[in-house]
Amino acid sequence: MSDDNTPRKSRITREEALAYHLEPRPGKYDIVASTPMATQRDLSLAYSPGVAVPVQAIAERPETAYDYTVKGNMVAVISNGTSILGLGNLGALASKPVMEGKAVLFKRFADVNAIDIELDTEDPDEIINAVRLMGPTFGGINLEDIKAPECFIIEQRLKELMDIPVFHDDQHGTAVICAAGLINALELSGKKIEDVRIVLNGAGAAGIACLELVKRMGARHENCIMCDTKGVIYQGRTEGMNQWKSAHAVVTEARTLEEAMRGADVFLGVSAKGAVTPEMVQGMAENPVIFAMANPDPEITPEEAHAVRADAIVATGRSDYPNQVNNVLGFPYLFRGALDIHARAINDEMKIACARALAELAREDVPDEVAVAYGRKLQFGRDYIIPTPFDPRLIHVVPPAVAKAGMDTGVARRPIIDMEGYVQSLKARMDPTAAILQGIHARARQAQARMIFAEGDDPRVLRAAVAWQRGGMGQALVVGRESDVKDKLEAAGLGDAAREITVVNAGNSRYLEQYHETLYTRLQRQGYDREDAVKLANRDRHVFASLMLAHGHGDGLVTGTTRKNAHVLAQIGMVFDVTPADGAVGITAVLHNGRIVLMGDTLVHEWPEAEDLADIATRGAHVARGLGLDPRIAFLSFSNFGYPISERAVKMAHATEVLDARKVDFEYEGEMTVDVALNPTQAAKYPFSRLTGPANVLVVPARHSASISVKLLQEMAGATVVGPILTGVPQPIQICSTSSTVSDILNMAAIAAGRLGQVK
Ligand SMILES: NC(=O)C1=CN([C@@H]2O[C@H](COP(=O)(O)OP(=O)(O)OC[C@H]3O[C@@H](n4cnc5c(N)ncnc54)[C@H](OP(=O)(O)O)[C@@H]3O)[C@@H](O)[C@H]2O)C=CC1
Ligand SMILES: CC(=O)C(=O)O
Ligand SMILES: [Mg+2]
């Protein structure tokens, strides 16, 4: 967290942006089957002849398409690329990354399936016809980045023609978030919407819709002035006009934006970068509200606005300033609520309900996890008038408000009867794994650790180190030779990063003699003479990096991508106590299909006995708590509670007795099979079990079974694997594997920085 309470800006480079889109596969999403498709029987059900049955059912009763197909959870994101963000008309194909991104946001934030469709035409009639014809496929249509005034014609006509929601997000999504922010900004400035003078700059898709919604919420027509590239839209103006602009023309003497802004209470900008000057802001009324929402750069930056008006309440479209007005706060939840009532439309009442729900949420106490994710304390006030996009409450607060408004206004085909049940189902709907990874990174960002990347000879490590430094996570200290690091960065297209990261080695370290002394002192009674210690410190990067950490010349250490775990652990052991006897344990997090399980010991104990297994469970519980989970430990075997009897299973049962004697404060049970541990139906056969739900920490009998299980899940199921997290040691050290990707290395660095594995 920064002391001045402003979020730290992270710089994203062109290379990073391109690599993000290129890897691991081109683009940003895949489509996965949700039904089994393995056997001849599956094939007969999914396709011919079985599929004929739902076909006939839908032909007889069209509304059953919501039951037998993906229609009810499927949205089309449609653009022709004529107004891409604030970049202008770059065509249909160039808009595809934005539309794919939007599809992924639908999924990430509201579990709505969405696909992008780019239409290569600027003719409104062609777009209308194409979209109308694809109506049967979708539960809703999200239009995006289509320029005004064509967007108004297209949306209006499609609304008339189609029986599903048609929603142009740049218009209404923006308007809804802007309205939510305005409700709260006016509350804070002590003004009423009926009284305020509003100036809106940008009479396009977003601008017209914002002003319309603000007027529907009580702003008076004669108090609102709209401007475009030609200045004020006054009654009688003829140049650059259209019917949508005319509807907002007013009688006024003002002709320029500057004149319009004199004495205004509110400025809303959806125009272009730099359209507002400090002088314009200076002349506004007391406690001015300034929403500079142009993307990617605002009309005026918060710094510039605050420099001339300390009393201003400022919002922008950007995530790196407080008060982000971005439609990502709206469209996922508006569509979630609309889809869940099989809505025919998204109407004004649903939009206003969404705006009010968002405004109210911002006034509530903010959960700690949200504050951590955002990197600063959030409390309703001038710097926090709108919830942040990563607020986990949005999914269960906003869609019910939208659905209820839809039901009250008669657009629901299937009203929700049990609202409380609906709220619970929304809570369960979201994949907790994304939030967990995000939490790890947020804590790391807050720590601003100097991270030692020991293997500067590996291009993956170098890319991770650059991402660490440029991503605002802290300082990257790379152990390697300067010329080699430079060459490898050049080869990775990151040549200019050589100046940004810090390269450290035995040749340029000021502390080498201290390191030699430390190592010699530690190893002299293990048969090492001074010369051996000097060579080891100078030549072995794992040992050198460990010495840096031991001397406080870095805050955390990541290594293990170039050599096998056992070797790396042994080298680190030259400097630190990391043996089983020292309490070290490896815990691996496996994330898949919305579930997370921790598995141990995946690193340190080769063949643990009952006491060791109890230690592993305790370390697993510690990591689980660090990730925000309530630990439930299962000691695994091939038998359940004593049957069949075997020596290997007995030690697992004994581990529970060791924990009984230790009186630990977490749930544990065993021995049991993995299905009993994870599947409630199987678990129900053992009603005496002390676990109150599926296990989330699995203690396995030995390291080989741990390794086999984790790698099987990774290879066969495509699970995300984080770890092994080295825990039980007093230092923030994490060991990657030789197959680690750049993201894996970054995850491990974030775990080290967040000190997730460390004993207190
Ligand atoms: N924060 C958010 O969530 C969102 C932000 N936006 C941003 O809003 C902006 C507009 O988007 P959108 O409405 O879709 O685009 P449109 O192309 O539909 O409209 C743009 C409008 O802005 C006007 N304009 C452009 N430059 C200036 C200027 N320097 N001074 C005054 N008016 C200007 C144009 O005037 P004229 O009519 O004279 O050509 C036009 O009326 C973009 O920057 C976009 O990124 C959009 C949606 C959501
Ligand atoms: C956020 C968005 O939709 C835009 O800037 O166009
Ligand atoms: Mg847009």
UniProtKB/TrEMBL annotation:
Residues 26-159 form the Malic enzyme N-terminal domain. Pfam families: malic (PF00390), Malic_M (PF03949), PTA_PTB (PF01515). SMART domains: malic, Malic_M. Its cofactor is Mn(2+); Mg(2+). Residues 171-407 form the Malic enzyme NAD-binding domain. It comes from the Bacteria. Keywords: Metal-binding, Multifunctional enzyme, Oxidoreductase. SUPFAM superfamilies: Aminoacid dehydrogenase-like, N-terminal domain (SSF53223), Isocitrate/Isopropylmalate dehydrogenase-like (SSF53659), NAD(P)-binding Rossmann-fold domains (SSF51735). In the N-terminal section; belongs to the malic enzymes family. In the C-terminal section; belongs to the phosphate acetyltransferase and butyryltransferase family. This is NADP-dependent malic enzyme. It comes from Paracoccus methylovorus.
